[in-house]
Amino acid sequence: MKKLVDKHPLAIRWFHWVNFPVLALMIWSGLLIYWANDVYRLGWGRTTVLKFFPQSFYDALHLNFRLAEGMAWHFVLMWAFALNGVLYVTYTLLSGEWRYLLPTRRSFAEAGQVLLHDLGLRPASAPAPGRKFNGAQQLAYTTVILMGAGSLLTGLAIYKPTQLAGLTALLGGYEWARIEHFALTIGYVLFFIVHVAQVVRAGWNSFRAMVAGFEVVDVSDAVSPEAMPSPPTASSPSTPA
Amino acid sequence: MPDTSSLPSPLPPSDEAVEREAARRSRRAFIVGGVAALAGLGGRRWLVTRPETDRLAWPLRRVLDANGRLAETLFSPTRLAPEFPAGRARMPRVNGKVGLKTPLDPAAWRLRVEPYAPPLTQPLELTLADIQALPRVEITTELKCIEGWSVVVRWAGARFADFVARYAPAAQTLPYVRLATPDGAYYVGLDLASALHPQTLLCYEMNGQPLTGAHGAPLRLVTPVKYGIKYIKRIGSIAFLAERPADYWAQRGYDWHAGH
């Protein structure tokens, strides 16, 4: 027997989908800036495994000679990125949604099991009742929020290295803060690849939950109808996004 | 079709009813999402087609200027940029030649202070010795290029504030300063607070040596609270102004403030 179960509150869906184009444009404008001093690479000594970035990459995405444009977009959209992030974190704290997202001690072991399952090395375990996310998701989603905070801090450190000299020094100085800011961006790209692959694997029901807010659950399964309760304090029915 | 969930029926809704409700809510959500996405694309389209102010769509330019004003409001104009041990100083690469294309005759060079108000109605012409007569200040700070690289440099010169106090004291009532190369090809605008910052120097020595031609001999600006684009080389003239002056790189799409 089927049942509609609310999953993602309307506010979280908006935060999620506003963040997607904003972060994409921040990465794009960041690349326009990075092009002007593209000195990072993976390697040791004189051996370079991966250069950030090959000329073909800049050419393909038309990133050459656009530093001023990149800075303008970056320092306009930083407001949208920061505001959306702060509102999201505030909302999760006030609504109680943070309880689903924050990893617990169990999450780490569970994340290992999820990884083994995803690699086809272990059969799937039954979904735990009363939870929206498994341990691997909790770790990934919490990490990406911390990365967002990291991008704001490292970004501020290279944006105002005199006025915020203490912050810049704490992050290892101007050049280190720039490296950290860049590394976090690479982290988002890696997150994005895994995230999209997992959404594809999880299927339509899971994707639709991030758009429309609900999942269709087959309650004849082992889980009880209350398997996925609404958040502890947010009891209003979610409206479509 | 009545909404079965609102009826006091003991029976749960049928699977078909659940699927219909799922389809209805999905349809609404995807339509709202699609409209929002189109609005976003439309907003971007609107933004990139706005008339440009100094090579930037005016809304972007407005936000950059607002960012600059916010920084001036929030931050202290006298906060010092971090200083480094002199041993960390390196020679920066030569990165700008605009305004340096004509040969320079060091003996004939003068720093011209434009008339700004009575009693200075004639331009004042100063020699390098006039600048060197001011207290010599040495600082080791990080030069940050707007391109993203940085290098620690030991600078020596006269504080711009000392120069103003000695040669143009009445100019301190004017909010802006404009500096230009002798040929006028490169020019920089500064707010007075940044110009009077204790680390803003009229610099004549780099890493213990007199400035080379490529690095801006005989006199260049050093202002560690700004990006390197404001460190104008081979200063030919200084003007104190009531209106915000044009700036070479700001006219080419960069932030006028370019501050740290």
Describe this protein's structure.
The complex is a heterodimer of chains A (241) and B (260). Chain A has helices at residues 10-35, 55-61, 67-95, 98-101, 105-118, 135-159, 165-170, 174-202, 204-212, and strands at 2-6, 41-44, 47-51, 214-218. Chain A has 241 residues and is mainly alpha-helical. Chain A has one domain (2-218): Transmembrane di-heme cytochromes, Chain C (Fumarate Reductase Cytochrome B subunit), CATH 1.20.950.20. Chain A has a two-stranded antiparallel ribbon with strand order 1-4. In chain A, strands 2-3 form a two-stranded antiparallel ribbon. In chain A, strand 2 (41-44) and strand 3 form a beta hairpin. In chain A, helix 6 (135-159) runs antiparallel to helix 8 (174-202). Chain A is globular and about 60 Å long. Chain A starts with a strand and ends in a 23-residue tail after the last strand. The model of chain A is unreliable at 222-227 and 229-241 (pLDDT under 50). Helix content of chain B is 26%, strand content 21%. In chain B, the strands form 3 sheets. Chain B has a 5-stranded mixed β-sheet. Chain B is an alpha+beta fold and 260 residues long. Chain B is elongated. In chain B, a hairpin with a 2-residue loop joins strand 1 (52-53) and strand 2. Chain B has 5 helices and 12 strands. Chain B has 2 domains: 4-48; 52-252, Alpha-Beta Complex (Sulfite Oxidase, Chain A, domain 2). Classes of the chains: A mainly alpha (241), B alpha+beta (260). At the A-B interface, strand 1, helix 1, helix 3, helix 7 and helix 8 of A face helix 1 and helix 2 of B. Chain B: This is Molybdopterin-binding oxidoreductase. Chain B: Residues 102-249 form the Oxidoreductase molybdopterin-binding domain.
